[in-house]
Give the backbone structure.
Amino acid sequence: MQRVTALILAACCTLAPARAQPPQDSTPPRHKPFVLTVLFENDSTFLKPNKATDRHYTHGTKFTFAHQPRWAERLAPLLPFSPATGDALKTAAGYAFGQNIYTPDRIELSTLQPNDQPYAGWLYIGAYLQRASATVFDHFEVNLGLIGPSALAEDIQHGVHDTFDETEPRGWDHQLGDEPGIDFIYQRKWKITLLTSHGADAVQLISQAGFTLGTIRRHANAGALVRMGVNLPDDFGPGRIEEPAAATGLPHASPGAYVFVRLGAKAVEHNTILEGNNHKPSHGVDAEDLVGEVQVGLVILWGEFELGYSQTYLTRQFKGQQDQDSFGALTVSWTGAF
C-alpha cells in the first residue's frame, strides 16, 4: 500500500505543473489590412477615347494609403454627425497626395483668354478618417496645398505633351499665382439593398450628401448611385479623386464585378480655380451656382486587386462656357495586410 500511495503522489506532482500552464492560443495573429490606390482622371484619348478635349479640368492624379489603426476606433465616436444606429462601427484612416491641372480651351494660344478657365495647378497632401455601420458611412478629409507655379502643373503638362508629341501648351505665363490653401471635406452615404440574388446583394442604391468648406472650394453636394453586379464588396461605391472609396470593409471579398451609374449636383459658393486668386483675380471667371454630373463605370475585383474605369459628364461650370466637359477615370487598388 505504501508503494501504491507513493506512486499516486508522484503522479500528482508530475501532472500539477502541466495543469498550471495557461492554455495555448491557437488563434492566428490578427492581420491589419491596408489598401494602396492610384487614381487618374483625364480628358485626353488615353482615358476618354470617344472625345478628347484637353481643357478646363484636364488632369488629376491622387495616391492614397488607407488602413484600420486602433486610434481611428477611439477617435471616430468623437467626430460630429454620429450615425444613429446600434450597429458596431468600423473605422479606417487614410493619407493622400495629389495634383490637379486646369487649362483654358485653347492651350496653343500664348495670349490671355479672359473669358475661360485660367491656367492653374493644385498640389496637395491630405488625411481622412472614415467610419461606417452596415448602412451609413461618413468620410472626413482635410487637404493642404498650393495653387500656382509651385504646384508644378506647368512642368508636368509640358513634360507629358513633349513625351507624347502633343500640342504645346503656351499660356502658362498667365497661370494663377502662388497661394496656399486648405479644404475640409465631409461626405455621408446611405446604402440600401434593392435586389438580392442567391442570398447576396445584387443591386444597391447608395445616396450621399456633404460639403466642402475651405479657401479653395466651398460647395454643398448631393447625389445617388445605383450599382448592379455579383459579389458586391463591403464598401459604399467606387472611389474617385473627390472622394476616396471606403476602407472600413477591408479586405474585400472577391472575385466580383459591378456596373454603376451616379447622378450628382453641387451648389457652388466659391471656386478659386475658376474665379482667380489674390495674385491674379482678373484672370478668373464666374462659377456657375449649380453644377450637375453623370458618371457611368465598371469595377472588377480579383484577388487583392480592384480595377475601375468610368466616364463623367458635367454641366457648364462657369458662366459663358461654350461646351460641356467630360473626363475619363482609371482606379487601381491593391489590398494587403501588415
The first helix runs from residue 2 to 20. DSSP finds four helices and twelve strands in the chain. The chain has one domain: 32-337. Confidence is low (pLDDT under 50) at residues 1-28.
